[in-house]
Design goal:
The chain is built from twelve helices and 17 strands. By secondary structure, it is α/β, with parallel strands linked by helices. The strands form four sheets. A seven-stranded mixed sheet has the order 4-12-11-10-7-5-6, sandwiched between helices. Strands 1-2-3-15 form a four-stranded mixed sheet. A four-stranded antiparallel sheet has the order 13-14-17-16, with helices on one face. The longest helix is centred in the C-terminal third of the chain and has 39 residues, at about 320-360. It is globular, with a radius of gyration of 22 Å. The protein starts with a helix and ends with a helix.
């Protein structure tokens, strides 16, 4: 082993604490383990503790850790070349663009690559404005999350949590683009206080009113996650998506889907396969490169794309290592791993719904593929959010070898999003830890 790696892997707690004072960490749920190595769905920390990782490291590690087939392909490629400037052509860029276009909805056929999801969303905003003369205001959903760069920060829930308490992205409101927000179709916890099935899709009526009377001039675009992730793993009704598509068609507004967390994870390549609705622009990131940094903006044939005159230029937009990783990931997903995502997602979903019958403080279970949220409440009738229980269950999981994420505006949603390679035995371990936590804590 290289001596540098030996020094890194042998770092102890005392040295870690000496290094820690030099870091600025602007996000993430704390506390968290200091990770040293991983294999499959398992991680090991600096103290030798092992965990099943149901965060997939920001939901990105679709193949888990240290996958030999995947790593071998990437390593072989690095023996030829790695970084190439955006102005040069590479076979990997051509091949990945073509492959994504083949998998995407019918009209989505052109791709621009970048290094992170927020920049992919910024690229989408540029495309929308370029194609909408005189349009400057975007519409987004309440509880949205699209990244923390200045170009998209204003679309986030973090920028609205400012009622006397300027925290997170709200500190930078004076620098960011302001977005017009409309209610999200959070049917379990309707922001309008209405009951599903009796609401008449009021959120769509408000979207229409906002388009007609709530923006200055024509709307530049409607930006949304097809399934809200950080907002609470919220699966939208199909008829809502159909209604949004119809409104965008009626008013000629580009519909932008942020698929940074839904690409493949909801069991289909793109959310079109889940909902049967096609957007005009798709943003990808996170899991696209199987752990290597890469993101993409994909656009419809009906839209004018980027010109080669510095409209969209990034030093690492042609990183061939990430492109090869993305292609290898797709190949492995096609060879059975995406099927396992669906099988194990359904298995975990069924197990969690069975636990819900035993434990009424599990208010709702939302599952699409391996995109799973468990919402905790103090009482199933009042649906009062129980953030304390969420914190306790997450801590119990960490103490007993399972890492979970946290979501929802009320911080009461447990995010269960393991790598796609999880086995039934490992899924049973995850369910067992949640069951033990509920017995002990409720």
């Amino acid at each position: 082993m290289d001596p540098l790696l030996e020094r890194l892997y042998s770092m102890g707690r005392k040295e870690k604490e000496a290094c820690e004072k030099h870091l600025m960490i602007g996000g993430g749920t704390r506390p968290a383990p200091t990770v040293v190595r991983g294999k499959g769905v398992w991680l090991e920390d600096i103290d030798g503790n092992r965990y099943i990782d149901c965060t997939s490291q920001s939901w990105a590690m679709y193949l888990g850790f240290a996958n030999e087939e995947f790593n071998r392909t990437v390593y072989e490629h690095t023996q030829s070349i790695s970084h190439v400037h955006q102005g040069f052509d590479t076979p990997s860029r051509f091949a990945l663009a073509r492959k994504l276009a083949e998998l995407a909805p019918e009209k989505i056929n052109r791709v621009s690559f970048t290094v992170g999801g927020a920049l992919a969303v910024e690229g989408a905003l540029k495309i929308a404005v370029k194609n909408r003369e005189n349009a400057q205001e975007f519409i987004c959903l309440m509880d949205a999350y699209h990244g923390t760069s200045l170009g998209v920060l204003g679309s986030n829930w973090a920028s609205t949590r400012a009622a006397g308490k300027y925290i997170g992205g709200a500190r930078f409101n004076r620098l960011i683009r302001q977005f017009v927000r409309v209610p999200n179709p959070y049917c379990y916890r309707c922001p309008l206080g209405l009951e599903p099935g009796t609401c008449g899709m009021m959120c769509l009526k408000i979207l229409r009113l906002t388009i007609e009377r709530g923006v200055n001039g024509p709307a530049a675009g409607v930006l949304m996650e097809p399934l809200q992730a950080s907002g609470g793993q919220i699966i939208f009704p199909k008829e809502y998506h159909q209604g949004v598509r119809a409104l965008c068609d009626e008013f000629g507004i580009p519909l932008i889907w942020d698929e940074i967390q839904t690409y493949c994870r909801i069991g289909t390549w793109f959310a079109t396969g889940y909902y049967g609705v096609e957007p005009d622009i798709i943003c990808l990131g996170k899991g696209l490169g199987g752990g290597y940094p890469i993101a993409a903006t994909m656009i419809s044939d009906d839209l004018e794309g980027f010109a080669a005159d510095t409209e969209e230029l990034h030093t690492f937009a042609n990183n061939t290592v990430s492109q090869v990783a993305a292609l290898k990931l797709i190949e492995m997903l096609e060879n059975g791993i995406l099927d396992n995502c669906n099988r194990m997602g359904d298995y975990l979903g069924e197990g969690l719904r069975a636990l819900q019958k035993e434990h009424p403080r599990i208010g709702d279970v939302r599952q699409a593929g391996l995109h799973i949220g468990v919402e905790f409440v103090k009482d199933p009738d009042s649906r009062e959010a129980d953030g304390e229980l969420l914190t306790a269950v997450r801590s119990y999981g960490m103490e007993h070898g399972v890492l979970f994420g946290v979501g929802g505006m009320l911080k009461n949603v447990l995010k269960v999003k393991p790598p796609f390679i999880i086995s039934q035995q490992e899924a049973d371990t995850v369910l067992g830890v949640i069951a033990e936590a509920m017995k002990k804590l409720t």
